Amino acid sequence: MSKKLKYGMVGGSLDAFIGEVHRKAAALDSKFSLVAGAFSSSPDKSKKTGEALGIDPNRTYGSYKEMMEKESQLPEDERIDVVSIVTPNHVHFDPAKMALEHGFHVIIDKPLAFSTQEARDLKEVVDDTGLVLALTHTYTGYPMVKEAKEYVREGKLGKIRQVYVEYPQGWLSVPLEEEGNKQASWRTDPERSGAGGSIGDIGTHAANLAEYVTGLNITHICADINTKVEGRKLDDNAAALLKFEDGATGVLMVSQIATGEENDIKVRVYGEKAGVEWKQSDQNTLLYKPLEGPHQIIRAGTGYLSDLAQANTRTPAGHPEGYLEAFANIYVAFHQAVVDHQSGEYKSASDYDFPDVVDGIRGMVFVDTMIESSKSETKWTPIEL
Amino acid sequence: MSKKLKYGMVGGSLDAFIGEVHRKAAALDSKFSLVAGAFSSSPDKSKKTGEALGIDPNRTYGSYKEMMEKESQLPEDERIDVVSIVTPNHVHFDPAKMALEHGFHVIIDKPLAFSTQEARDLKEVVDDTGLVLALTHTYTGYPMVKEAKEYVREGKLGKIRQVYVEYPQGWLSVPLEEEGNKQASWRTDPERSGAGGSIGDIGTHAANLAEYVTGLNITHICADINTKVEGRKLDDNAAALLKFEDGATGVLMVSQIATGEENDIKVRVYGEKAGVEWKQSDQNTLLYKPLEGPHQIIRAGTGYLSDLAQANTRTPAGHPEGYLEAFANIYVAFHQAVVDHQSGEYKSASDYDFPDVVDGIRGMVFVDTMIESSKSETKWTPIEL
Amino acid sequence: MSKKLKYGMVGGSLDAFIGEVHRKAAALDSKFSLVAGAFSSSPDKSKKTGEALGIDPNRTYGSYKEMMEKESQLPEDERIDVVSIVTPNHVHFDPAKMALEHGFHVIIDKPLAFSTQEARDLKEVVDDTGLVLALTHTYTGYPMVKEAKEYVREGKLGKIRQVYVEYPQGWLSVPLEEEGNKQASWRTDPERSGAGGSIGDIGTHAANLAEYVTGLNITHICADINTKVEGRKLDDNAAALLKFEDGATGVLMVSQIATGEENDIKVRVYGEKAGVEWKQSDQNTLLYKPLEGPHQIIRAGTGYLSDLAQANTRTPAGHPEGYLEAFANIYVAFHQAVVDHQSGEYKSASDYDFPDVVDGIRGMVFVDTMIESSKSETKWTPIEL
Amino acid sequence: MSKKLKYGMVGGSLDAFIGEVHRKAAALDSKFSLVAGAFSSSPDKSKKTGEALGIDPNRTYGSYKEMMEKESQLPEDERIDVVSIVTPNHVHFDPAKMALEHGFHVIIDKPLAFSTQEARDLKEVVDDTGLVLALTHTYTGYPMVKEAKEYVREGKLGKIRQVYVEYPQGWLSVPLEEEGNKQASWRTDPERSGAGGSIGDIGTHAANLAEYVTGLNITHICADINTKVEGRKLDDNAAALLKFEDGATGVLMVSQIATGEENDIKVRVYGEKAGVEWKQSDQNTLLYKPLEGPHQIIRAGTGYLSDLAQANTRTPAGHPEGYLEAFANIYVAFHQAVVDHQSGEYKSASDYDFPDVVDGIRGMVFVDTMIESSKSETKWTPIEL
Question: Chain A: residue nearest D301 by CA?
Fold first, then answer.
């Protein structure tokens, strides 16, 4: 096992959701130590979170600015290597930029930024500093998603013809944001979430998953975006027809008002020679559907998987791994990149199997294009990077 | 059990698929006797089919015209009551019209006709003769589809917000029509199938299912239709964004090049208060997903179902019924209408739970609108009945 | 299609369950015509049933004795070919014997008889008359059960090591027999059901399924039989350890007090080279689990199946067939045997793929041995045919 | 979050399986720090493992004896609080006893010891020292297993009637132990594994799961134990009829030669009022099957769960948690007990929801009784604690 990296966290106070997910993902494989944090814009809340997490009080900061400044002045073997950013979307760009500029590698929850402009600007900082930035598009961390990607890459599906990707949730079927639900409040608030509601929160995941598995970029979108819950300020339901490179077509469906649905992101890809299907509710299975012969149940943890899938599994088949492990797989890949960077071997994020700043820009442009298309009376709107 | 009806069949020679399905569906509940037939445009083939089916050779006819004429001259208690039409689409209108004009009730495989004009003309004949015409949109014959409809009707879902309907098949992933496959040949031939390929063959089923369950008509379509297999003359893949009455939106996906897929038509409907999900691969289950509390597995054959669902099941829960039973349910409902007609109690097809000539016109207009929308650069195309 | 056979039914009045199942199974493929019946021990009920079924009133008889006598005096081309016996267990032997002695072939619901002695006696009558007798152990009629059998026969599993067979039902979790439920009443009454409750009603199905698929006979039983519902006169729950020929071992579980369970008979067989799994709740799937490589989802209606499985399916993959079709498959096989008998080509029931009188005796001995074992303090009780 | 505990590990070198599972489970929730270890009986291997794990070389010990002695001499705030024992079964008792005698709390992989005598002796040490000992029967760590237990405890099932528990694996279908597979070698070696093969390795899990969920002890066993792979020294397949307290009966099935099976431990419990079903392959679901009305799909992470189940879940419904999280749940409960012990509030392991030394003894006695029963010609063998 290689060097344990020290990290500081921006956001993730005790009542947040995704911050604790990041902490568990980072902890699972013992490759990261949480040693610092600016856990909240409220210094008091930050302090209490730091205490609860057993962080040295001297390294629980009142603001991320303070954290960047103070940590960068610590001796090299003491200070943090990495900053993990888990704030709402409108507080992504500033701390990420600042972290990079202070020499820290960055891992950041998606979407990359509040706006596409911010995302593009952030890419410049990444390029200028040469540091590592990873974006936690969780679902591409699942081993069977990686296996699906490998199937496509190896040509088992032949030329891709049709893609269905969906992400139905039901938790926003009622106006939770009016009942003080913290998760609902910022996600439905354009001041904190950005231009997209469901399309930003989960639509970007769906688009990223489809592009990751197929290896094809979406080129055109024909979208219908709705706000189904009265009074809501952002979209909560969307669907789009898609065109991909190379003549593939597809459908994207995301909803946060699909009453009763949990979180079942699912992708189906059909090529000339076979189809594959993966869904989070049966996360350790990839269904492989060849043109001839029976469907096969490809399972995580088995010996017949690709190296990539095997490297992203911790236990033998039948020991279910889930969401936190998928998340941790991104942390592990990011860890490798940072360690390589520290030893001078790092060249580019694209050499590693984690979503990077380019994926982040794609996600922001996806949101913009969905909105533009939905407003347009013309059928197809191109995605312009 | 009420009177057994006598029927003659148009089409359905021994090498056809859907003719034998109709025969089994008609036979299952012992409500119909097959006593006559014009099973093929080839008199020899017709004769051989009649022999194999044990039909009186005098009533195996060389053409449907002959059947109509000769049967109508038989004494009332001998001649057929009903004509079942199971030919390819281009031979739907003529025999249906002729049957009605000779006083026979008609049950006809979908789509109703070769063109929308034919469909409209046929409605006039139905209206003029006052006879019964049923269309075998099989999937609405499933008891759990009926239960879904009842859930919507009773308000268990509240106002409908979003609908997903899909019908993925993979059997046309290769150009079977070039290999002499009879089923593939006529379905991909515009001269026999009409303007629609996959959208006519299975898209009409999907649209009909969505409208049946929700009780809402589709009002606008934004479609993308493709022909993925080179050289094929009709579409084999399509997707559409949908608008329904009352503000509901939806997505329709049909494909015959979804490699490896069998025949898994599926519908999901989400309302303000709950969602429901049904799919043919688990045909005896309706998933009910309320806003609060656990999902429920609603099962065919149980005592807690609606009267409508119970009336369309033959066995207790756990004794799987399937496609042929769903098909037979349409025959049973049609039987009741005909018997009522014979006793003077029949008023309108809409009093019975089977697809009728109006559904048939809707299906034809759906196909036209899909094609028009796909060619249009404007996003939304209205459905104009 | 070969000759349509005429049959008369014993039992199966309108309020019975299995009689109507037999009628639908016989009707589905248009190979049988119901032309006579003694549908109830109450002549009035019999008459009403005959009327409802559209039977010639002259051939609706007040007793099965009358039916046998009168039918056998009809001209050969008018009289019934076959008697279908669907009465409770205590009225199996007499009508079966009488039917055979009057020259009629017999198809009979399981179990074969009220007692093992009756079953043995009936075999003698079958042997003496040389007529065809089929027993409707429904579950072996499923195409994927037949495919499982073929997998074993072809050696795909290697030597069989372990078998699990289970049949959990919940409908007798409460004393329905005290509430006037007709199905519960006779099944829990030793005067009508025989020595076994759940072990006779469904245990015989489970044992038959295990033996059919493996091709191995059960040789020893170690059983625990219980009556869980207070006051019930017969067993409603049982389990047994099994020894098969050739060193295979197994477990059999049957229950009618498995609260909430429907009817999910399931068999799993493990050999040196692979395992297979089939269950009625997913009746068109056989899971094939080889030693190496992914599990395969073997599906009814596909082109890669054995001839035997293909011959027992009516529709392409994805068009679910179920319980009635499985039942009908037994009628079809029986039809072939009778037709062969009539043309002089029939030799032995074992040449056909339907359960026969020998399977019936095995079922009765199974029940006896289960009871004997359950009472014994010794672990293993041999099955003695 | 409360105090982070320091622990040392016995066993768990880099090529072991369960040691790494323990490390990840301990790390996930940031409640434990691995600071010491005697990772192998080979000091060199231990040293290399310690290096790879980033352990202070001074605290990577050549033997567990050395670890206990040296650690106990460190200052209280430096030395380990807890010892985690992950060695093969024959090296459980000695390090556990030694750890307790040096004042360390113990968490130990199952089975508790090599023999029942060792297990009983260990209980005495636990009683004498008053320290905390937890046993990692993983499956009871799953939130939906806990929910099942709560359903039974709250009376939702009524009086329990029938229990089915099964644990089928296929990985030992071939003699892997002859091919140098480390996991297979010690598990099939009576010198390292103890008297039981499959019954010890996985049978104890199955028995523990059944007893945990029902709250009922198994009182009598009627077992059939086999060794199906020629030349194997321990059993690889077993089944048993069970009697529980209070008149419940059951069946236990375990196999390591169920070819193709992964690791799908499953339990079904049927009471007078309802049944429940849980299986590891769908670990976040509990099926609840009431006497009347539809089955319910009870899901981890939902708001309607019991406090116990909610406390053992980290993410909202639809974010799958798995085996490592279930394992971690045991570590979390153990952590609470140790922290309480350190603050003087600990009374008894039975106040916490983790398997303890009494469960460990039950497991050992289960193995002994299975073996005794299998050898016996008498049907029932009592479990004598």
Answer: A262
Residue A16 — very low, low, confident or very high, per pLDDT cuts 50/70/90? confident
Comparing CA positions, the residue from D45, D134, D43 lying closest to residue D84 is D134
Measure CB to CB from residue D290 to each of C162, C260, C270 and give the nearest one. C260
Q: Do C160 and C190 lie in a common domain? A: yes
Q: Residues B119, B187: one domain?
A: no
Residue B356 phi/psi, 5° resolution?
-125, -165
Mark whether D265 and D283 lie in a shared domain: yes
Residue A219 belongs to some domain of the structure: yes
* Chain A hits for C292, Cβ within 8 Å: 304
Number of domains observed in the structure of chain C: 2
Q: Minimal CA–CA distance to D123: which of D323, D364, D285?
A: D364
To the nearest whole angstrom, how far is the Cα of C363 from the nearest Cα of chain B?
22
Q: What does the block give as tokens for A90? A: 């409108």
Residue of D nearest to A142 (CA): D320
Q: Kindly state whether residue D355 falls inside one of the protein's structural domains.
A: no
Q: Are residues C97 and C157 in the same domain?
A: no
Print the domain residue range for B48.
5-131
Region class of D159: left (phi > 0), else alpha (psi between -120 and 50), else beta: beta
pLDDT level of residue C385 (50, 70, 90 thresholds): confident
Question: Do B107 and B245 have their domain in common?
Answer: no
Interface test with D, best of B156, B295, B299 (most D CBs within 10 A): B295
**For chain D, how many helices (H) and strands (E)?**
13, 14
Residues of B in contact with D296 (CB under 8 A): 293-297
- The string of pLDDT tens digits covering residues A323-350 is 999 999 999 999 999 999 999 999 999 9
Query: Tokens for B141?
Result: 């014959």
- Is B80 in the same domain as B149? no
* Helical spans, DSSP H, in A130-251: 143-153, 182-187, 190-193, 198, 204-214
Residue C3 has what pLDDT?
A: 84
A232: in domain: yes
Site from A224, A256, A292, A372 to mutate, B interface, most B CB atoms within 10 angstroms: A224
Q: Which two tokens stand for residue D51?
A: 């290096």
The token pair that represents D307 in the structure block: 């406090």
- Asked if D154 and D257 sit in the same domain, the reply is yes
D245-257 pLDDT, tens digit per residue, is: 999 999 999 999 9
The pLDDT of residue B254 is 98
Mark yes or no for CB contact C1/B54 under 8 Å.
Answer: yes
In a domain, C213, yes or no: yes
Maximum CA pair distance of chain A? 64
Residues C148 and C121 in one domain: no
Q: What is the DSSP string of B140-163?
A: GGSHHHHHHHHHHHTTTT-SEEEE
Q: How far is D380 from chain A (nearest CA, A)?
A: 33
Q: What is the pLDDT of residue B2?
A: 63
Strand-pairing partners, residue B381, are B221
Per-residue confidence (pLDDT) for residue D180, from 0 to 100: 87
- pLDDT tops 70 at residue A1: no
Q: Is the pLDDT of residue C156 over 60?
A: yes
Question: Pairing relation of β-strands C160-168 and C218-226?
Answer: unpaired
Cβ C224–D170 below 8 Å, yes or no? Answer: no
- A360, with CB counted inside 10 A (0-12, 13-18, 19+), is buried
ipTM above 0.90, yes or no: yes
Query: Which alpha helices (H) appear in C90-234, and where do they start and end?
Result: 93-101, 116-129, 143-153, 182-187, 190-193, 198, 204-214
Look at residue A209 in the predicted model and tell me its pLDDT: 98
Contacting residues for B22 by C-beta, under 8 A, at least 6 apart: B9, B12, B84, B86, B107, B109, B136, B327, B331
pLDDT tens column, C75-106? 999 999 999 999 999 999 999 999 999 999 99
pLDDT at residue C16, rounded to an integer: 84
